[in-house]
Amino acid sequence: MHFTSCARNIDSIEGLPALGIAGAGFGIGTIGYFFSHKKQTDSSTLEVTDVPKFQHDTSASNISDACKEFSHIVGSANVSTAAQDLLIHSGSDFQSYAWTPETATPGAAVVYPGSTEEVSKIVKVCHRRKIPITPYSGGTSIEGQYIPTMGGVAIDFTRMDRIIEVNPLDLDCTVQPGVGWQDLNHELASDDLFFPPDPGPGAQIGGMIGTGCSGTNAAAYGTMKDWVLSLTVVLADGTIIKTRQRPRKSTAGFDLTRSFVGSEGTLGLVTEATLKLAVKPKCEAVAVCTFPSIRAAANAVQSIISRGISVAAVEVLDEVQMRSINVAGLTKRKWTEQPSLFFKFTGSTDVIVEDSAKLVGKISEKHGSTSYAFAADADEREELWSARKNALWSMMAMRESPTDKVWTTDVAVPMSRLADIIEDSKRDIEQSGILGAILGHVGDGNFHSILLFPEEKRDIAEGVVHRMVEKAIAMKGTATGEHGVGLVKRDYLEKELGKATVDTMRMMKNAFDPLCILNCDKIVRMAPKI
Amino acid sequence: MHFTSCARNIDSIEGLPALGIAGAGFGIGTIGYFFSHKKQTDSSTLEVTDVPKFQHDTSASNISDACKEFSHIVGSANVSTAAQDLLIHSGSDFQSYAWTPETATPGAAVVYPGSTEEVSKIVKVCHRRKIPITPYSGGTSIEGQYIPTMGGVAIDFTRMDRIIEVNPLDLDCTVQPGVGWQDLNHELASDDLFFPPDPGPGAQIGGMIGTGCSGTNAAAYGTMKDWVLSLTVVLADGTIIKTRQRPRKSTAGFDLTRSFVGSEGTLGLVTEATLKLAVKPKCEAVAVCTFPSIRAAANAVQSIISRGISVAAVEVLDEVQMRSINVAGLTKRKWTEQPSLFFKFTGSTDVIVEDSAKLVGKISEKHGSTSYAFAADADEREELWSARKNALWSMMAMRESPTDKVWTTDVAVPMSRLADIIEDSKRDIEQSGILGAILGHVGDGNFHSILLFPEEKRDIAEGVVHRMVEKAIAMKGTATGEHGVGLVKRDYLEKELGKATVDTMRMMKNAFDPLCILNCDKIVRMAPKI
């Protein structure tokens, strides 16, 4: 028996505003604003105009009193208000945000905790005193993630740099946030293991989790999200939680681990991470192919991937980038200044590696590749791959003046649109008159542009970045493939994801951190843009 | 210059309760309880005793009026209050929860929407009327996920079964929640693509996302979390959001996609999913090895994995399970009744597949394997793998009476503890006197026990499951590897993750769904256990 409708005028019922309880709740919410920071409605989203105004207290006396408490927790040697320390924690030349030492707006203090318990105590002080917190580790992020726009206190994880345990049989390890990924891999090498995510040199696990980074290995191994098993996190009120134990697989409740990965310290501060590890491939090879055009290179990659051929990495460098490598001279070899694909192949036997490499060679040739350099020997491999590794530094050598700025940004699009957007962006860079190169994790539909310009041409660079991002979004891609959101990319999120989705993120942020003290106003604006 | 502490008695400052705003907020929260459902504190967690009492209205008149509205939205043919429909949506024999048709507590109505917009309208009605909602698709979950313990309305996604688009070049597709994974793979085969997660037959995308399922392919391809690019979700207040566009990689804000995967419909209802696809491997082979003991088999797997040898799947079946396959006779072959490993190998060439298979054969032999059957031919492969595929049904044939119950449960532990826990659990099953087999996704440290028993021995089965889960947790594993939490596993979460972590999940649930109408009280208890 199915229910038969006999209602009259149902539209009017459905069209009614949610009166009654929800309405009353809103009334109390308005009154409650003076007392509480969680908005009181029955809504699942939170608009920026409904976020209670921050009640941060960054007065000199409050900071000074807080620093006394911090000193008691971590020792006075680990609390700094020195101008140089504050400046280091206020930004860097690599920010896409227009940072300079002269215009920097440093925070008020830097605290260096040594343990999860100390972080919890520090956060409790800040929670009670309503002092904004900006987390810091490595300092290699480029979207303004650690710029202390709200003032307050930086928590620097430099001292928390221990590898706590490595479990080779379980293929996992537990580390503190201040461990660098390169140092970790150095340690793991003796067990023939490695941690795949490979962002810029100097990056540390804490920041890598915050950004949800990736790198060249993502084509085969995925991104940071895929390599974190469990996190110990200090929440905004100082509560310590651990998101998981150590099984490789679990469906035990909400995926808090992945909620924190990519949240840039806005939902909690990571103080310990259990990471998955991969077995170092027994055999490895590298190949470099040059192509007459970026499109030909992109087509070759599409063809390789759609045949299910396993490549450990595939990177594209455009002719400007290749020229810069020759100019900088950081590698021994002289390179053909044409769009090039850099491949990595790995496997448990030489046969497997060579078989994949052969297939890739054939497909590249079909797509017009004019040269194919292959290396299985360790030194030769290193030499070939060194061009890719030195790409950013090589571009730096192309600056016309040492005061020229560099703006590295990235977007990602569905694979089939990659050639279109790269071609478009290259044309746009050429027309802009500033120098720029394209460099891409082409296996993921993700690429970077590196722009060099004098400060007075910032608006031109900004225009190039803006148009590239708009194009990526129009192609059903993303404003940020692996660099996070920080400050500059915030205002693209609504366009990319829709207002309701951003309002959902804001609701989540507000639930985790009702006082908005954790890296407040990053990723999602918590106050209207002025 | 480092700050020097001159504070007296800081301990007492730090020890102060968070008075002032937080305290006053709590007061208002208590008053506000009558009007609003979001607790008003500055805390980042929510204890079960602080959740406002549900104000659900499941009165006959409210449901009847709601059904009139539903009929207006979806047509009266798509609203049912028929007893048989309600019973089907109240549970099944496969639940670990003690469900029988006689003791079932059905909900009050089932609604069958046809679009995202219809789901949003239905949810808005329920939100306004405070009617609990239980989502339903496929109905193959076994931890009680779709049992309508709060009464109210089931939303059944059967009609939303369209594959909306397949983008072969982008390796993605967009589908509605009522699409079965087997049907999807059938459609994708013509493009040489497939969707890797392979849970039980009959499962549909909506439920697979809810549970965060996996299956035999997880060893090589990961779980559901790794294969969802974007979700369209209807939130508790009817708001429609889309978590992402279609890039393979993105760091655009919080990972809402993965917040919903595994949340069992408690945070929102998935109405559309964009899924990543994999290229169907050109070449495939299957091998089966028998071992003198489970430990020898587990050691072989450990050895294979730690050498980085690529296997597409590796499953362990114990001797009870192998015997059941012979007894049931669902496969042609007569099997050795010993612990056995089932391997799948895939690759882009025969050479790659054979090379991996050879290595695995050698390692298995070293670990005492007494036989190694290998098949690359499609029919032979199918025949070998059929034993694994029919495992559950074969066990069903071992029931002494057709009214005997089956309880399938799973846990996961760090790889190195797998042999220990399987041996322990087998001993425990033997001592319990009930019939049980072990079957495992051994490459992930994840295994299932299948227990058969007459209803009057439920407490014995419960004891076995309880001890297995407790052991897994003690070994730093999880109470649930791939079946989700639902009802039965809820009370293990605090033990596994800690109280503060569960309180964080509860805070998140309350923020997304302040009226607790979406599959309320599943995963995380929202009311104290009575």
Task: Jot down its keywords.
homodimer, disordered N terminus, 5 domains, five-stranded antiparallel sheet, 18% strand, Uridine Diphospho-n-acetylenolpyruvylglucosamine Reductase, domain 2, Uridine Diphospho-n-acetylenolpyruvylglucosamine Reductase, domain 3, alpha+beta, 18 helices, seven-stranded antiparallel sheet, 530 residues
Describe the model.
The structure is a homodimer of 530-residue chains. Chain A is of the alpha+beta class. Chain A has 5 domains: 18-52 and 491-530, no CATH class; 60-158, 2-Layer Sandwich (Uridine Diphospho-n-acetylenolpyruvylglucosamine Reductase, domain 2); 163-279, 2-Layer Sandwich (Uridine Diphospho-n-acetylenolpyruvylglucosamine Reductase, domain 3); 283-394, Alpha-Beta Plaits (2-Layer Sandwich); 399-482, Alpha-Beta Plaits (2-Layer Sandwich). Helices cover 35% and strands 18% of the residues of chain A. In chain A, the strands form 4 sheets. In chain A, strands 15-12-14-13-17-18-16 form a 7-stranded antiparallel beta sheet, with helices on both faces. Chain A has a 5-stranded antiparallel beta sheet with strand order 5-6-10-8-9. In chain A, helix 3 runs antiparallel to helix 5 (116-129). The longest helix of chain A has 17 residues, at 350-366. The model of chain A is unreliable at 1-36 (pLDDT under 50). At the A-B interface, helix 1, helix 2, helix 3, strand 1 and helix 5 of A face helix 1, helix 2, helix 3, strand 1 and helix 5 of B. Chains A, B: Pfam families: FAD-oxidase_C, FAD_binding_4. Chains A, B: Residues 103-280 form the FAD-binding PCMH-type domain. Chains A, B: Keywords: FAD, Flavoprotein, Oxidoreductase.
